Amino acid sequence: MARKLRADAPRVVTANRLLDGVVVYRTAAGTWSPHLARALVVGSDPAVEALLAVCERDVAGCEVVGLDVIEVRPDALAARGDGPRAITQREAIRATGPTIALPVDRPVTRPASLP
Amino acid sequence: MYQYDTHDQTLVDQRVAQFRDQVARRLSGALTEEQFKPLRLMNGLYLQLHAYMLRVAIPYGTLSAAQMRMLAQIARRYDRGYGHFTTRQNIQFNWITLAEAPDILADLSRVQMHALQTSGNCIRNVTSDPWAGVAPDEIEDPRITAEILRQWSTLHPEFSYLPRKFKIAITGAPSDRAAVRVHDIGLRMHRDDRGEAGYEVIVGGGLGRTPVIGKTIRPFVPKRHLLSYLEAIMRVYNSFGRRDNMYKARIKILVDAIGITEFRDLVEAEWTTLRETELDVAPETYAAIAAHFAPPAYEALTGTVAEAADGASDAVLARWIRANVAPHRVPGHGIVNVSLKGTDQPPGDATASQMDLLADLAEHYSHGEIRVTHEQNLVLPHVRLSDLPALWAALEAAGLGTPNVGLVSDIIACPGLDYCALANARSIPLAQALTRRFADMDRAQEIGELHINISGCINACAHHHVGHIGILGVDRHGEELYQVTLGGRSDEQAALGKVVGPAVPADRAVDLIAGFVDTYLAIRQPGERFIDTVARVGTTPFKETLHAAA
Amino acid sequence: MPLLEAGVRIADPWVVVTEPQAVPADGPVLVPLARLTTERDTLVMRRAPLGVLLPNDAAVADLTVLVDGDLNRLGLIVLAFPAFKDGRAYTQARQIRETHGYRGRLRATGEVLRDQLLFMVRCGFDQVVLDSADPEGDWQTAVTEIAGVYQPTGDGRPTIPALRRHTLRRKGLAA
Ligand code: SF4
Q1: Domain of residue A70, residue span
Q2: What is the pTM of this model?
Q3: How many CA atoms lie within 13 A of B21 on its CB side?
Q4: N or C: which end of chain B has fewer CB within 10 A?
């Protein structure tokens, strides 16, 4: 979902891994990490364009799909090493998973009456 | 139940091999994502927020015990131990990898299942009445026709790249439990003056961005001509449906743009070239498929569901029977509806162990058959009334005994923003909050029949327009808000709900709906259901709650 | 780009004549529907094979009226897939073959991908322009990887329902 982003907004590049669909973020080391906190934050349009151009190679190389640029909150937390945080609910959920307790496959009692 | 012959089995097996090759070509780079996407979609594979999602077809919502066990096994082996039953009678697995998808399809084919055409711009899995074959008011089992349609639409060479997805629903009973008026094509079985069974064909219904109640294009099409008539409709749609704007590409927009009369003329002209051809369903073909749906060998028993409830030893059991067991066409039997709407259970979700248990229970108590409803519940269609206490105890012990089918806490909800890449807002947490608010089952019985439907975006997967209370998630500058409608219904008197008030945050939505229910209880007349009261008084008295809650 | 006929690579004898060009006196020519409309008489009177490019938003009837209702006066009809997702030409193909009984060559152009070839063949195309390193191999795989068909489309394959009826009747006779 491409949103209109401010020209100077701090942003990161995200995608899904082709093989398993896992959400990943582009790191400063040029790798893809499942942790938003490890993402490389860029703050200008030219820097975003340049980063996207590099990432496109991994799309062509079948490593990731669905490249997207999202706005993040770098703030003081980033300086403390916590890394960027998502701003929208959607990106927060992409970064950390569903907000609900997922069903747990607990054993159920099978009544004695069944053969 | 329908059993594949070697033709069906070979086709599904070859399709699995074909998809395996397509996945390999995608992973090697021979196919781009753009080229691959329609291929994976036509095999049910989506890329969602966190992973791939595989939507497995459960044709017309009928499952055998062995198939249910395979679904459990897939949930355990390839997913996180659970699956989600959908409003289109399918099941979705949320945590799938692309690399393993072909293996899953191969496992499914071993129990005569597939994920064909559960997505993409093609004719989707045909849906039907979950009580098919057992409903007392039924004219003929609609699954016979649904199976004929399944085969006809499978890999249809002309209609695999339509302007947009295409959904067909069929009912064989006067009470419409298949929502045929809100499908691209709806089929309603009835008899002509000579007593021959055929179909009223309804076209151009649908929900989504532009909700429309379908219009009758032909009051009666004999069984023999059904496929040629549908092929004529599809052909007109494929030629003239819009392809420039995906929001205007459904058949309802075409029917609306040129009018039902002109649309009918085009279809009838095309039909003259298609009828009396090999497309005709030969009586022997119909009979051969009908044989698969012959009723099981019921015992000669007596008694009604009402008597079973009155005679129950336990008040909780009696309440469950009243809410969840429906009358069966055969005396001494009941249709058991299993609620997947327990407190804190995401609507429609079942764990692998629950699926295994249901398979066992189906084998023991229901002639090995299970159904999936478009309310995201399950059905054991052939249960002896004398087995109800034991069956209920087993369900109850597995967290499947919630006595709320058709009641206020039987909420229909799509996956929403917790899973879905298209969502604007979450659906499941709101459904859970409402379920908690209406957790008192005695009060729920007192409130009576009430359908709440929650969709996380305008795609309306939870059919919010036709919920007695409909809730649509919207995104206002990153905030999740919910738009509430009143008075929708998907039965034979299908109607679209009317918006009441501005969109509100989730907690306000819960209060609002609680207020609507209070208003209803205060003003209802004897015997009136929620939807009847709304029909009688309109939305105004309910809007007053809105101000009170503000 | 490679042109295949019935799965075999062939040279293309057809000369495409677009608007400003003069129509050559002989040899097979392929003209857009619009040109056939404006120069119908000259083109139909020519003593050499005529082919037509039918856009996918045109009705087949727009073409039949120009050839006195007899599509077999044409040697080639070319249908377009401007994008592989745009499936209108599948319907045109079946109408041309099955409704109008056309027996000449029917060619698919545009975004023709290997994974759609089976559908094209089933709808009556016998020629495709296929961008591929191994077009003949791709064709072979594509049209054979799924053997059974449920729908009668006029491609001559016995359908699964027909095969079943056959089996039923044989059993009936044996019984
Ligand atoms: S209604 Fe929207 S959010 Fe919900 S499942 Fe459908 S597409 Fe996703």
Answers
A1: 11-96
A2: 0.95
A3: 13
A4: C
